[in-house]
Amino acid sequence: MSAETNSSSTKKKTTMKTPQGSQEPTTTQTLLSYGVKPYEPKKDEEYMSKAQKEHFRKLLNIWKAALLQGGDETIHDLKELAEVPADVSDQATLEETFALRLRARDREHKLINKIDESIRAIDSGDYGYCEECGIEIGIRRLEARPTATLCIDCKTLAEVREKQGR
């Protein structure tokens, strides 16, 4: 569905589909909505084969394009809402809406940078391997989080350390 039929608050039509029923779709939902199916490794296929790298490059580029389009739409929406309302409470609500959207844009900008880093890692041959211990991150984990740079064990350890304040 286009954004036009997916939301009554917007009048413009977009070319990219958006997942239904979710404000912030998961990576998997987003990619499935664009027709990117999870990678199915062939029997005895080498980890991070050419086909796997091509799959993840495609996946990352589609995700990045969707984020960039969303940013363009937010800028357009913010320009449309830029008229200052006369009522003070309406103005406060509008300012809060602006702040929330700008924070979301900032998070998406950081995610776009991580996507670009992942694409560079594909180019250098480092993609899919843990930055800490060097083992394979795994196809399923990369499908769930294509920008992952740590294996599940190292990520868990990093989260424990973070909670302990180290």
Automatic annotation (TrEMBL):
Binding site residues for Zn(2+): C130, C133, C151, C154
Keywords, in A-Z order: Coiled coil, Cytoplasm, Metal-binding, Zinc, Zinc-finger
GO MF, one example: zinc ion binding
Keyword Coiled coil: yes
Domain DnaK suppressor protein DksA N-terminal, first and last residues per copy: 52-122
InterPro entries to which the protein is assigned, alphabetical: DksA_N, DksA_RNA_pol-bd, DnaK_N, Znf_C4-type_bac, Znf_DskA_TraR, Znf_DskA_TraR_CS
Zinc finger DksA/TraR C4-type domain span: 125-158
Compositional bias annotation for Polar residues: 19-32
Similarity section: Belongs to the DksA family.
Function description: Transcription factor that acts by binding directly to the RNA polymerase (RNAP). Required for negative regulation of rRNA expression and positive regulation of several amino acid biosynthesis promoters. Also required for regulation of fis expression.
Name of the protein this chain belongs to: RNA polymerase-binding transcription factor DksA
Protein's organism: Candidatus Berkiella aquae
